[in-house]
Amino acid sequence: MSEVQNDQIRNNVRENYKEIALRVVSNDNCCAPSCCTPDENQNISIEEISKKMGYTTEELKNIPNGANMGLGCGNPQAIADLKEGETVLDLGSGGGFDCFLASPKVGDKGRVIGVDMTPEMITKARNNAEKNQFKNVEFRLGEVENLPVADSFVDVIISNCVINLSPNKRRVFNEAYRVLKEGGRLAISDVVMTTELPKELQADIQLYSGCISGASTIDYLADLMKQAGFKNISIIPKDESKEFIKEWAPEHKLEEYIVSATITAVK
Question: Is 32 helix (H, G, I), strand (E, B) or coil?
Fold first, then answer.
């Protein structure tokens, strides 16, 4: 893809998440528009969506109001093994949901940085951080392909259903490698393609913004990560995720083409 085409995709994704940021105002919204569910007629709560993705009731009750917008396809917290004092970077942090969960795990000596390219998401996250006195959390406006983070600065990178949205995934993994310290690790939840999407779905830019058309195969992602320099690469598909994926756009039977996966690796 050309840079012009890449920018068109980013702009569409940005507009989609701007609308979500402005529309979702609380955690108990009854008809949550998930990352991959543009259908506003679903009668499903954000909490229900999050539990299907692997978050616990305990985690969900300690999140600032409006931070959890049901945007994701898994729970990177479950595989990150965060430790006190670590610096964590969340790629595509949205309203700050996973950042706020990571905050108490790394403690006062740790630090959590969220990066998102949608100004409205950054504003929402910063307001929640200030209102709820998260002293070790900050949010930066930027693209995951061009991270506003210094070299070898972070211990752990987490991300939840965001890398599929990038039109330049090679650049994302190169940037992730750059900002990680030696021995730093990736802990990512994302969708992967299990069989080729029909051409009409691949060409649908709205489905790209909905975490569908931008999905890649496991082999392709593993190759990109290897080329970036990562070791101990593991990409594990979660067949149980088909239970919520089939709700994203039922008319397309997406569960036949994509599945959520956990992605881990070490620098």
Answer: coil
